[in-house]
Amino acid sequence: MKKQKISDAVIHRLPRYYRYLDDLFNKGVVRISSNSLGSKMDITASQIRQDLSCFGEFGQQGYGYNVAELRSEIGHILGIDSGHRLIVVGAGHLGHALLQNFDFQKLGFQIDSAFEVSPALIGTSIRNITIRSMDELEEYVTQYRPDVAVLTVPQHVAQSLADRLIALGIRGFWNFTNVELSTQEPGVFFENIHFADTLLTLSYRISRS
Q1: Which domain holds residue 157?
Q2: pTM to 2 decimals?
Q3: Which residues contact 125 (CB under 8 A, 6 or more apart)?
Q4: Same domain for 112 and 176?
Q5: In angstroms, rounded to a whole number, what is the distance separating the alpha carbons of residues 70 and 52?
Q6: What pLDDT, in 10s, does the model give residues 16-36?
């Protein structure tokens, strides 16, 4: 892999490449050209070639891309085979829905456990994932060393909880609290998910059409 700074725009396109290639792979498609892939994804073939060139040489002129090989390579770049371990903090409605319906393992994440403050939920399980008390959080993270925390907790505790988890060694946060989290600690990353942003984007588009 080339040693260079990869832009956020390229990084955010990689999961789309993987998703489309995974769909093609599951349909039995063996190869695809950059033009055909670009047409499906509504981006230019030159943009695809430019993005992929950040990570090495892929495809052959006159042949295109081997779908299975490119899917595997992009999956590797994305860390799907890295064995990331993950905890969910907040097992209320949204946390429950994620645990029940989202296929973390397909993307290479092993769910270790979930944590909650509600006595009614502590000790229950969702798809064989045990819901533990927040009082067990420090001991659990220290012992099992998960990489990522999914946060579905109230806004007013989000930043302090993130700081607490960072101090325990968590390096990645999938943040559904609808507040922007930050840290001065190097090597820690946030993906802040804002449902309202996407809904308002949709509102803009249908209002202007």
Answers
A1: 84-197
A2: 0.89
A3: 131
A4: yes
A5: 10
A6: 999 999 999 999 999 999 999
